[in-house]
Amino acid sequence: MSNLSELTQYRCMIKSLVRRDLRGRYKGSLLGFLWNFITPFMQMAVYILVFSTIFRVGIEDYAIYLIVGLTPWILFSDSMTEGSGVMVANCELLKKIYFPRAVLPMALLLSKTVNFIIMLGIVLIIAVALGHPLNAEALLFIPVALLLLMCFILGLLLFLSSLNVFLRDIQYITTVVMLVLVWLTPIMYLWDSFDNGLLTFILDINPLSYFVELFHQILYWGEIPDLYYLGICTLAAFVSLGVGAFVFNKLQYKFAEVL
Amino acid sequence: MDKDNAIEVTSVSKSFRINAGPTSLKDMIVYRKAHSKKYHPKRKVLDDVSFSVKKGEVIGIIGRNGSGKSTMLKLLSGILRPDTGSIDVDGKISCLIELGAGFHPDMTGRENVYINSSIFGVDKKTTEERFQQILDFSEIGGYIDERVRNYSSGMYLRLAFSVAINVDADILLIDEILAVGDINFSKKCLDKLRDLKAHGVSIVIVTHAVDMAKEMCDRVIWIEGGQIKAEGDPEEVCNQYVEFMGV
Protein backbone atom coordinates (compact mmCIF):
# COMPACT_ATOMS: atom_id res chain seq x y z
CA MET A 1 0.00 0.00 0.00
CA SER A 2 2.85 2.37 0.74
CA ASN A 3 3.92 1.69 -2.85
CA LEU A 4 0.64 3.07 -4.11
CA SER A 5 0.85 6.31 -2.15
CA GLU A 6 4.40 6.72 -3.39
CA LEU A 7 3.17 6.30 -6.94
CA THR A 8 0.66 9.10 -6.53
CA GLN A 9 3.48 11.30 -5.31
CA TYR A 10 5.35 10.52 -8.52
CA ARG A 11 2.41 11.08 -10.87
CA CYS A 12 4.20 14.15 -12.19
CA MET A 13 7.04 11.93 -13.24
CA ILE A 14 4.61 9.68 -15.09
CA LYS A 15 3.14 12.72 -16.82
CA SER A 16 6.47 14.10 -17.89
CA LEU A 17 7.68 10.70 -19.08
CA VAL A 18 4.58 10.40 -21.23
CA ARG A 19 5.22 13.84 -22.63
CA ARG A 20 8.86 12.99 -23.17
CA ASP A 21 7.90 9.82 -24.99
CA LEU A 22 5.27 11.42 -27.22
CA ARG A 23 7.23 14.55 -28.05
CA GLY A 24 10.80 13.39 -27.77
CA ARG A 25 10.50 10.18 -29.73
CA TYR A 26 10.32 11.68 -33.17
CA LYS A 27 12.19 14.91 -32.42
CA GLY A 28 14.45 15.85 -35.23
CA SER A 29 12.33 14.12 -37.85
CA LEU A 30 10.44 16.21 -40.36
CA LEU A 31 6.97 14.90 -39.53
CA GLY A 32 7.63 14.68 -35.79
CA PHE A 33 4.56 13.87 -33.73
CA LEU A 34 2.67 12.76 -36.84
CA TRP A 35 4.75 9.60 -36.94
CA ASN A 36 2.76 8.40 -33.95
CA PHE A 37 -0.17 7.91 -36.34
CA ILE A 38 1.40 7.25 -39.69
CA THR A 39 2.73 3.83 -38.74
CA PRO A 40 -0.51 2.36 -37.33
CA PHE A 41 -2.52 4.06 -40.02
CA MET A 42 -0.44 2.49 -42.76
CA GLN A 43 -0.82 -0.82 -40.96
CA MET A 44 -4.60 -0.42 -41.12
CA ALA A 45 -4.52 0.71 -44.74
CA VAL A 46 -2.48 -2.32 -45.78
CA TYR A 47 -4.80 -4.76 -44.03
CA ILE A 48 -7.88 -3.14 -45.51
CA LEU A 49 -6.36 -3.23 -48.97
CA VAL A 50 -5.21 -6.83 -48.74
CA PHE A 51 -8.42 -8.17 -47.27
CA SER A 52 -10.94 -6.20 -49.24
CA THR A 53 -9.37 -6.61 -52.67
CA ILE A 54 -7.03 -9.61 -52.68
CA PHE A 55 -8.60 -12.02 -50.21
CA ARG A 56 -12.27 -11.28 -50.16
CA VAL A 57 -13.83 -11.63 -46.75
CA GLY A 58 -17.60 -11.57 -46.74
CA ILE A 59 -18.12 -9.18 -43.88
CA GLU A 60 -20.32 -6.17 -44.29
CA ASP A 61 -18.48 -2.85 -43.87
CA TYR A 62 -15.33 -4.88 -43.63
CA ALA A 63 -13.05 -1.82 -43.36
CA ILE A 64 -14.86 -0.74 -40.22
CA TYR A 65 -14.76 -4.23 -38.71
CA LEU A 66 -11.04 -4.35 -39.34
CA ILE A 67 -10.04 -0.96 -37.96
CA VAL A 68 -12.26 -1.34 -34.92
CA GLY A 69 -10.44 -4.56 -34.04
CA LEU A 70 -7.02 -3.27 -35.00
CA THR A 71 -7.15 -0.21 -32.75
CA PRO A 72 -7.14 -2.12 -29.43
CA TRP A 73 -4.79 -4.68 -30.94
CA ILE A 74 -2.25 -1.98 -31.81
CA LEU A 75 -2.49 -0.60 -28.27
CA PHE A 76 -1.86 -4.09 -26.94
CA SER A 77 0.92 -5.12 -29.26
CA ASP A 78 2.78 -1.79 -29.22
CA SER A 79 2.69 -1.74 -25.43
CA MET A 80 3.92 -5.32 -25.25
CA THR A 81 6.76 -5.17 -27.75
CA GLU A 82 8.14 -1.98 -26.31
CA GLY A 83 7.05 -2.42 -22.71
CA SER A 84 8.59 -5.81 -22.07
CA GLY A 85 11.98 -4.15 -22.51
CA VAL A 86 11.18 -0.96 -20.61
CA MET A 87 13.34 -1.73 -17.56
CA VAL A 88 16.33 -2.71 -19.64
CA ALA A 89 15.92 0.30 -21.91
CA ASN A 90 15.91 2.63 -18.90
CA CYS A 91 18.68 0.87 -17.00
CA GLU A 92 20.76 4.05 -16.75
CA LEU A 93 17.93 5.78 -14.93
CA LEU A 94 17.20 2.78 -12.70
CA LYS A 95 20.80 2.47 -11.59
CA LYS A 96 21.26 6.12 -10.83
CA ILE A 97 18.10 7.59 -9.43
CA TYR A 98 15.58 6.27 -6.99
CA PHE A 99 11.92 6.36 -8.02
CA PRO A 100 9.13 3.82 -7.83
CA ARG A 101 9.98 1.44 -10.63
CA ALA A 102 6.37 0.86 -11.67
CA VAL A 103 6.40 4.42 -13.04
CA LEU A 104 8.15 3.23 -16.19
CA PRO A 105 5.62 0.66 -17.49
CA MET A 106 2.76 2.96 -16.45
CA ALA A 107 4.16 5.89 -18.40
CA LEU A 108 4.71 3.69 -21.42
CA LEU A 109 1.15 2.38 -21.31
CA LEU A 110 -0.27 5.88 -20.94
CA SER A 111 1.68 7.21 -23.87
CA LYS A 112 0.38 4.33 -26.02
CA THR A 113 -3.10 5.06 -24.73
CA VAL A 114 -2.87 8.65 -25.95
CA ASN A 115 -2.16 7.26 -29.41
CA PHE A 116 -5.06 4.85 -29.00
CA ILE A 117 -7.49 7.62 -28.20
CA ILE A 118 -6.48 9.63 -31.21
CA MET A 119 -6.77 6.56 -33.43
CA LEU A 120 -10.16 5.86 -31.96
CA GLY A 121 -11.21 9.35 -32.99
CA ILE A 122 -10.05 8.61 -36.51
CA VAL A 123 -11.98 5.32 -36.50
CA LEU A 124 -15.15 7.16 -35.43
CA ILE A 125 -14.67 9.73 -38.17
CA ILE A 126 -14.22 7.00 -40.79
CA ALA A 127 -17.28 5.16 -39.49
CA VAL A 128 -19.42 8.28 -39.79
CA ALA A 129 -17.94 9.09 -43.21
CA LEU A 130 -18.76 5.61 -44.52
CA GLY A 131 -22.25 5.81 -43.08
CA HIS A 132 -21.78 2.99 -40.60
CA PRO A 133 -24.47 3.22 -37.88
CA LEU A 134 -23.18 4.00 -34.38
CA ASN A 135 -25.07 3.44 -31.14
CA ALA A 136 -24.57 6.33 -28.74
CA GLU A 137 -25.46 4.26 -25.67
CA ALA A 138 -22.99 1.57 -26.65
CA LEU A 139 -20.28 4.19 -27.15
CA LEU A 140 -20.55 5.03 -23.44
CA PHE A 141 -18.95 1.65 -22.75
CA ILE A 142 -15.73 2.58 -24.53
CA PRO A 143 -14.09 4.00 -21.38
CA VAL A 144 -14.99 0.81 -19.50
CA ALA A 145 -13.56 -1.39 -22.23
CA LEU A 146 -10.45 0.74 -22.46
CA LEU A 147 -9.90 0.72 -18.71
CA LEU A 148 -10.18 -3.06 -18.57
CA LEU A 149 -7.78 -3.43 -21.48
CA MET A 150 -5.32 -1.05 -19.81
CA CYS A 151 -5.39 -3.03 -16.56
CA PHE A 152 -4.85 -6.23 -18.50
CA ILE A 153 -1.89 -4.73 -20.36
CA LEU A 154 -0.38 -3.15 -17.24
CA GLY A 155 -0.39 -6.48 -15.42
CA LEU A 156 1.36 -8.18 -18.31
CA LEU A 157 3.84 -5.32 -18.59
CA LEU A 158 4.76 -5.47 -14.91
CA PHE A 159 5.23 -9.21 -15.25
CA LEU A 160 7.20 -9.25 -18.49
CA SER A 161 9.32 -6.15 -17.95
CA SER A 162 10.58 -7.39 -14.59
CA LEU A 163 11.29 -10.92 -15.84
CA ASN A 164 13.06 -9.44 -18.83
CA VAL A 165 15.68 -7.97 -16.52
CA PHE A 166 16.77 -11.50 -15.67
CA LEU A 167 16.03 -13.17 -18.97
CA ARG A 168 16.51 -10.76 -21.85
CA ASP A 169 14.98 -13.18 -24.33
CA ILE A 170 11.51 -12.26 -23.04
CA GLN A 171 11.59 -9.07 -25.04
CA TYR A 172 12.32 -10.91 -28.31
CA ILE A 173 9.90 -13.71 -27.52
CA THR A 174 7.20 -11.06 -27.02
CA THR A 175 7.82 -9.63 -30.47
CA VAL A 176 7.49 -13.09 -32.03
CA VAL A 177 4.37 -13.89 -30.03
CA MET A 178 2.74 -10.65 -31.22
CA LEU A 179 3.49 -11.62 -34.81
CA VAL A 180 1.57 -14.87 -34.35
CA LEU A 181 -1.11 -13.65 -31.99
CA VAL A 182 -2.51 -11.10 -34.41
CA TRP A 183 -3.73 -14.04 -36.51
CA LEU A 184 -5.08 -15.92 -33.50
CA THR A 185 -7.34 -13.07 -32.44
CA PRO A 186 -10.59 -12.32 -34.29
CA ILE A 187 -9.42 -9.09 -35.90
CA MET A 188 -9.22 -9.91 -39.58
CA TYR A 189 -12.10 -12.39 -39.51
CA LEU A 190 -15.20 -13.20 -37.47
CA TRP A 191 -14.77 -15.26 -34.30
CA ASP A 192 -17.14 -17.97 -35.53
CA SER A 193 -16.09 -18.11 -39.15
CA PHE A 194 -14.13 -21.34 -38.81
CA ASP A 195 -15.06 -24.95 -38.31
CA ASN A 196 -11.54 -25.87 -37.30
CA GLY A 197 -11.79 -27.10 -33.71
CA LEU A 198 -8.23 -26.23 -32.79
CA LEU A 199 -8.44 -22.66 -34.07
CA THR A 200 -11.76 -22.08 -32.35
CA PHE A 201 -10.26 -23.44 -29.16
CA ILE A 202 -7.28 -21.08 -29.40
CA LEU A 203 -9.59 -18.13 -30.07
CA ASP A 204 -11.67 -19.11 -27.06
CA ILE A 205 -8.75 -19.28 -24.63
CA ASN A 206 -7.04 -16.16 -25.96
CA PRO A 207 -8.09 -13.41 -23.52
CA LEU A 208 -7.45 -10.80 -26.15
CA SER A 209 -10.28 -12.22 -28.27
CA TYR A 210 -12.70 -11.04 -25.61
CA PHE A 211 -11.23 -7.55 -25.46
CA VAL A 212 -11.29 -7.18 -29.23
CA GLU A 213 -14.83 -8.53 -29.30
CA LEU A 214 -15.82 -5.95 -26.71
CA PHE A 215 -14.74 -3.18 -29.07
CA HIS A 216 -16.42 -4.91 -32.01
CA GLN A 217 -19.67 -5.06 -30.10
CA ILE A 218 -19.54 -1.41 -29.14
CA LEU A 219 -18.30 0.10 -32.37
CA TYR A 220 -19.05 -2.34 -35.16
CA TRP A 221 -22.25 -4.07 -34.10
CA GLY A 222 -23.47 -1.02 -32.21
CA GLU A 223 -24.60 -3.08 -29.24
CA ILE A 224 -24.29 -2.67 -25.52
CA PRO A 225 -21.60 -5.22 -24.62
CA ASP A 226 -22.65 -8.60 -23.26
CA LEU A 227 -22.10 -9.23 -19.59
CA TYR A 228 -20.35 -12.41 -20.69
CA TYR A 229 -17.58 -10.53 -22.48
CA LEU A 230 -17.40 -7.82 -19.85
CA GLY A 231 -17.12 -10.45 -17.14
CA ILE A 232 -14.32 -12.37 -18.80
CA CYS A 233 -12.42 -9.18 -19.56
CA THR A 234 -12.76 -8.02 -15.96
CA LEU A 235 -11.51 -11.37 -14.74
CA ALA A 236 -8.58 -11.31 -17.17
CA ALA A 237 -7.71 -7.76 -16.11
CA PHE A 238 -7.72 -8.62 -12.41
CA VAL A 239 -5.74 -11.84 -12.78
CA SER A 240 -3.17 -10.11 -14.97
CA LEU A 241 -2.84 -7.15 -12.64
CA GLY A 242 -2.64 -9.36 -9.55
CA VAL A 243 0.00 -11.70 -10.91
CA GLY A 244 1.92 -8.84 -12.51
CA ALA A 245 2.01 -6.74 -9.35
CA PHE A 246 3.02 -9.75 -7.24
CA VAL A 247 5.94 -10.75 -9.45
CA PHE A 248 7.00 -7.13 -9.92
CA ASN A 249 7.06 -6.51 -6.18
CA LYS A 250 9.19 -9.58 -5.63
CA LEU A 251 11.72 -8.64 -8.26
CA GLN A 252 11.89 -4.85 -8.34
CA TYR A 253 14.53 -4.46 -5.65
CA LYS A 254 16.94 -6.57 -7.67
CA PHE A 255 16.73 -4.46 -10.82
CA ALA A 256 19.51 -2.01 -9.99
CA GLU A 257 21.83 -4.86 -9.05
CA VAL A 258 21.35 -7.03 -12.08
CA LEU A 259 21.15 -4.38 -14.79
CA MET B 1 14.45 6.15 15.47
CA ASP B 2 15.98 9.08 17.33
CA LYS B 3 14.13 12.33 16.65
CA ASP B 4 17.31 14.30 15.99
CA ASN B 5 18.52 11.85 13.36
CA ALA B 6 17.92 12.18 9.64
CA ILE B 7 19.45 8.84 8.77
CA GLU B 8 20.04 5.77 10.88
CA VAL B 9 22.03 2.91 9.45
CA THR B 10 22.00 -0.21 11.58
CA SER B 11 24.42 -3.09 10.90
CA VAL B 12 23.95 -3.00 7.16
CA SER B 13 25.62 -5.59 4.98
CA LYS B 14 25.52 -5.85 1.23
CA SER B 15 27.10 -8.32 -1.11
CA PHE B 16 26.93 -8.63 -4.85
CA ARG B 17 27.07 -11.66 -7.03
CA ILE B 18 29.85 -11.28 -9.47
CA ASN B 19 28.75 -11.72 -13.08
CA ALA B 20 25.17 -11.19 -12.01
CA GLY B 21 22.66 -10.70 -14.74
CA PRO B 22 21.36 -12.88 -17.49
CA THR B 23 23.36 -15.89 -18.59
CA SER B 24 23.12 -16.97 -22.20
CA LEU B 25 21.98 -20.43 -23.21
CA LYS B 26 25.40 -21.08 -24.73
CA ASP B 27 27.10 -20.29 -21.45
CA MET B 28 24.68 -22.52 -19.61
CA ILE B 29 25.15 -25.54 -21.82
CA VAL B 30 28.74 -25.25 -22.97
CA TYR B 31 30.28 -23.84 -19.81
CA ARG B 32 27.59 -24.93 -17.34
CA LYS B 33 27.76 -21.50 -15.84
CA ALA B 34 24.12 -21.14 -14.94
CA HIS B 35 24.11 -21.59 -11.21
CA SER B 36 27.64 -22.61 -10.37
CA LYS B 37 28.94 -20.86 -7.28
CA LYS B 38 32.29 -20.65 -8.98
CA TYR B 39 30.96 -18.49 -11.76
CA HIS B 40 28.79 -16.39 -9.46
CA PRO B 41 30.86 -15.90 -6.31
CA LYS B 42 29.63 -13.36 -3.82
CA ARG B 43 31.63 -10.30 -2.98
CA LYS B 44 30.89 -8.60 0.27
CA VAL B 45 30.92 -4.87 -0.34
CA LEU B 46 29.64 -3.65 3.01
CA ASP B 47 29.95 -5.62 6.20
CA ASP B 48 27.99 -4.70 9.29
CA VAL B 49 28.11 -0.93 8.91
CA SER B 50 26.29 1.28 11.40
CA PHE B 51 26.20 5.03 11.70
CA SER B 52 23.75 7.86 11.95
CA VAL B 53 23.44 11.33 10.53
CA LYS B 54 21.92 14.10 12.57
CA LYS B 55 19.58 16.67 11.11
CA GLY B 56 21.59 19.51 9.63
CA GLU B 57 24.83 17.61 9.85
CA VAL B 58 27.36 17.24 7.03
CA ILE B 59 28.99 13.83 6.92
CA GLY B 60 31.92 12.98 4.70
CA ILE B 61 32.59 9.43 3.63
CA ILE B 62 36.14 8.76 2.55
CA GLY B 63 37.97 5.63 1.53
CA ARG B 64 39.91 4.15 -1.31
CA ASN B 65 38.36 3.06 -4.62
CA GLY B 66 36.13 0.04 -4.21
CA SER B 67 35.83 0.40 -0.46
CA GLY B 68 32.03 0.53 -0.65
CA LYS B 69 31.41 4.29 -0.45
CA SER B 70 29.23 4.58 -3.51
CA THR B 71 27.33 1.43 -2.62
CA MET B 72 26.58 3.04 0.73
CA LEU B 73 25.13 6.07 -1.05
CA LYS B 74 23.00 3.89 -3.32
CA LEU B 75 21.69 2.06 -0.27
CA LEU B 76 20.82 5.35 1.41
CA SER B 77 19.02 6.59 -1.68
CA GLY B 78 16.94 3.42 -1.97
CA ILE B 79 18.32 2.39 -5.35
CA LEU B 80 19.73 -0.73 -3.67
CA ARG B 81 18.39 -2.64 -0.70
CA PRO B 82 20.62 -3.97 2.08
CA ASP B 83 20.90 -7.75 2.45
CA THR B 84 20.72 -7.48 6.20
CA GLY B 85 20.35 -4.61 8.63
CA SER B 86 18.13 -1.61 8.22
CA ILE B 87 18.24 1.95 6.99
CA ASP B 88 15.80 4.46 8.44
CA VAL B 89 15.41 7.80 6.79
CA ASP B 90 13.43 10.78 8.01
CA GLY B 91 12.74 13.23 5.23
CA LYS B 92 12.96 13.58 1.49
CA ILE B 93 16.17 12.56 -0.21
CA SER B 94 17.78 14.12 -3.24
CA CYS B 95 20.54 12.12 -4.73
CA LEU B 96 23.34 13.71 -6.71
CA ILE B 97 25.04 10.47 -7.58
CA GLU B 98 24.80 10.75 -11.29
CA LEU B 99 23.90 14.17 -12.57
CA GLY B 100 21.82 14.55 -15.66
CA ALA B 101 20.53 10.99 -15.77
CA GLY B 102 17.16 11.26 -17.45
CA PHE B 103 18.04 14.26 -19.59
CA HIS B 104 16.72 13.93 -23.09
CA PRO B 105 19.37 15.27 -25.48
CA ASP B 106 16.85 16.40 -28.09
CA MET B 107 14.78 18.48 -25.71
CA THR B 108 15.58 21.97 -24.51
CA GLY B 109 17.15 22.79 -21.20
CA ARG B 110 13.84 24.16 -20.00
CA GLU B 111 11.93 20.99 -20.85
CA ASN B 112 14.62 18.91 -19.22
CA VAL B 113 14.42 20.92 -16.01
CA TYR B 114 10.77 19.96 -15.72
CA ILE B 115 11.36 16.31 -16.60
CA ASN B 116 14.31 16.04 -14.24
CA SER B 117 12.51 17.63 -11.29
CA SER B 118 9.60 15.30 -11.85
CA ILE B 119 11.98 12.35 -11.58
CA PHE B 120 12.84 13.66 -8.13
CA GLY B 121 9.13 13.62 -7.33
CA VAL B 122 8.52 17.37 -7.58
CA ASP B 123 5.30 18.50 -9.20
CA LYS B 124 5.09 20.90 -12.09
CA LYS B 125 3.73 23.84 -10.14
CA THR B 126 6.57 23.78 -7.63
CA THR B 127 9.10 23.56 -10.43
CA GLU B 128 7.50 26.55 -12.12
CA GLU B 129 7.83 28.59 -8.96
CA ARG B 130 11.42 27.60 -8.59
CA PHE B 131 12.40 27.81 -12.21
CA GLN B 132 14.07 31.24 -12.04
CA GLN B 133 16.12 30.13 -9.06
CA ILE B 134 17.30 27.04 -10.93
CA LEU B 135 18.11 29.08 -14.01
CA ASP B 136 20.03 31.70 -12.07
CA PHE B 137 22.04 29.17 -10.19
CA SER B 138 22.98 27.21 -13.29
CA GLU B 139 24.22 30.36 -15.10
CA ILE B 140 22.89 28.83 -18.32
CA GLY B 141 21.19 32.08 -19.33
CA GLY B 142 19.77 32.23 -22.85
CA TYR B 143 20.92 28.71 -23.66
CA ILE B 144 18.05 27.33 -21.58
CA ASP B 145 15.85 27.15 -24.68
CA GLU B 146 18.45 25.33 -26.73
CA ARG B 147 18.62 21.60 -27.04
CA VAL B 148 20.68 19.97 -24.33
CA ARG B 149 22.54 18.06 -27.05
CA ASN B 150 24.43 21.24 -27.87
CA TYR B 151 25.43 22.04 -24.30
CA SER B 152 29.02 21.77 -23.20
CA SER B 153 29.60 19.12 -20.57
CA GLY B 154 30.02 21.85 -17.99
CA MET B 155 26.69 23.46 -18.85
CA TYR B 156 25.02 20.08 -18.76
CA LEU B 157 26.32 19.33 -15.28
CA ARG B 158 25.59 22.82 -13.99
CA LEU B 159 21.98 22.57 -15.06
CA ALA B 160 21.62 19.08 -13.61
CA PHE B 161 23.19 20.17 -10.35
CA SER B 162 20.91 23.18 -10.10
CA VAL B 163 17.85 20.99 -10.54
CA ALA B 164 18.99 18.40 -8.04
CA ILE B 165 19.77 20.98 -5.41
CA ASN B 166 16.46 22.81 -5.80
CA VAL B 167 14.07 19.98 -5.06
CA ASP B 168 13.46 20.81 -1.43
CA ALA B 169 15.23 17.81 -0.04
CA ASP B 170 15.86 17.27 3.66
CA ILE B 171 18.80 15.05 2.87
CA LEU B 172 21.31 15.44 0.08
CA LEU B 173 23.49 12.57 -1.05
CA ILE B 174 26.46 13.71 -3.08
CA ASP B 175 29.09 11.73 -4.91
CA GLU B 176 32.27 13.58 -5.89
CA ILE B 177 30.81 17.02 -6.04
CA LEU B 178 33.92 18.92 -7.06
CA ALA B 179 33.77 17.49 -10.54
CA VAL B 180 31.04 19.99 -11.37
CA GLY B 181 32.05 22.91 -13.54
CA ASP B 182 34.93 25.34 -13.14
CA ILE B 183 36.46 26.77 -9.99
CA ASN B 184 33.89 29.51 -9.66
CA PHE B 185 31.02 27.13 -9.97
CA SER B 186 32.55 24.66 -7.52
CA LYS B 187 32.88 27.45 -5.01
CA LYS B 188 29.29 28.45 -5.62
CA CYS B 189 28.20 24.86 -5.06
CA LEU B 190 30.04 24.66 -1.78
CA ASP B 191 28.50 27.95 -0.66
CA LYS B 192 25.09 26.63 -1.61
CA LEU B 193 25.70 23.48 0.40
CA ARG B 194 26.67 25.56 3.45
CA ASP B 195 23.53 27.57 2.97
CA LEU B 196 21.40 24.42 2.80
CA LYS B 197 23.11 23.07 5.87
CA ALA B 198 22.31 26.26 7.71
CA HIS B 199 18.69 25.60 6.81
CA GLY B 200 18.80 22.21 8.46
CA VAL B 201 19.48 20.01 5.45
CA SER B 202 21.57 16.94 6.20
CA ILE B 203 24.29 16.19 3.68
CA VAL B 204 26.27 13.05 3.02
CA ILE B 205 29.26 13.58 0.77
CA VAL B 206 31.37 10.84 -0.72
CA THR B 207 34.72 12.23 -1.73
CA HIS B 208 38.38 11.67 -2.37
CA ALA B 209 39.18 15.31 -1.80
CA VAL B 210 40.44 15.21 1.75
CA ASP B 211 40.87 18.97 2.00
CA MET B 212 37.28 19.55 1.07
CA ALA B 213 36.12 16.97 3.57
CA LYS B 214 38.08 18.72 6.32
CA GLU B 215 36.61 22.04 5.37
CA MET B 216 32.99 21.07 4.79
CA CYS B 217 32.17 18.21 7.08
CA ASP B 218 31.16 18.04 10.73
CA ARG B 219 32.17 14.43 10.89
CA VAL B 220 34.03 12.05 8.61
CA ILE B 221 33.56 8.32 8.25
CA TRP B 222 36.40 6.32 6.78
CA ILE B 223 35.32 3.10 5.10
CA GLU B 224 37.93 0.47 4.36
CA GLY B 225 37.10 -2.94 2.92
CA GLY B 226 33.41 -2.53 3.59
CA GLN B 227 33.78 -1.66 7.25
CA ILE B 228 34.08 1.55 9.18
CA LYS B 229 37.72 1.98 9.99
CA ALA B 230 37.45 5.30 11.75
CA GLU B 231 34.80 7.88 12.47
CA GLY B 232 34.90 11.28 14.06
CA ASP B 233 36.62 14.64 13.79
CA PRO B 234 37.33 15.42 10.10
CA GLU B 235 40.88 16.65 10.71
CA GLU B 236 41.82 13.56 12.68
CA VAL B 237 40.19 10.92 10.50
CA CYS B 238 41.41 12.49 7.27
CA ASN B 239 44.95 12.61 8.54
CA GLN B 240 44.79 8.97 9.58
CA TYR B 241 43.45 8.11 6.15
CA VAL B 242 46.15 10.04 4.32
CA GLU B 243 48.79 8.39 6.47
CA PHE B 244 47.26 4.96 5.85
CA MET B 245 47.26 5.51 2.12
CA GLY B 246 50.93 6.45 2.39
CA VAL B 247 50.81 9.56 0.28
The CATH homologous superfamily of chain B is termed P-loop containing nucleotide triphosphate hydrolases
Distance between the termini of chain A: 26 Å
Number of domains of chain A: 1
N-to-C CA distance of chain B: 40 Å
CA-based gyration radius of chain B: 20 Å
Strand content of chain A: under 5%
Counted by DSSP, the helix tally of chain A is 14
- The count of β-strands of chain A is 0
How confident overall, as mean pLDDT of chain B? Answer: 85
Tell me which CATH architecture of chain B applies here.
3-Layer(aba) Sandwich
Rg of chain A, please?
Answer: 19 Å
State mean pLDDT of chain A (0 to 100 scale): 89
- Give helix and strand order of chain A, one letter per element, not per position: HHHHHHHHHHHHHH
Count every helix of chain B, treating DSSP H or I runs of 4 or more residues as helices.
8
Tell me the overall shape of chain B.
Answer: globular
Q: Give the oligomeric state of the chains in this entry, treating copies of one chain as homo and distinct chains as hetero.
A: heterodimer
Summarize this structure briefly.
Chain A is mainly alpha-helical and 259 residues long. Chain A has helices spanning 2-9, 11-24, 35-54, 62-83, 86-89, 91-96, 103-129, 136-139, 142-166, 169-181, 197-205, 207-220, 227-251, 255-258.
Structural notes for this entry:
- The complex is a heterodimer of chains A (259) and B (247).
- Chain A has one domain.
- Chain A is 75% helix and 0% strand.
- By secondary structure, chain A is mainly alpha-helical.
- Chain A is built from 14 helices and no strands.
- Chain B has one domain: Rossmann fold (3-Layer(aba) Sandwich), CATH 3.40.50.300.
- In chain B, 36% of the residues lie in helices and 26% in strands.
- In chain B, the strands form two sheets. A six-stranded mixed beta sheet of chain B has the order 5-6-7-3-8-9, sandwiched between helices. A three-stranded antiparallel beta sheet of chain B has the order 2-1-4, with helices on one face.
- The longest helix of chain B is centred in the C-terminal third of the chain and has 16 residues.
- In chain B, 39% of the residues are buried.
- The chains are: A mainly alpha (259), B alpha/beta (247).
- At the A-B interface, helix 2, helix 6 and helix 14 of A face helix 3 of B.
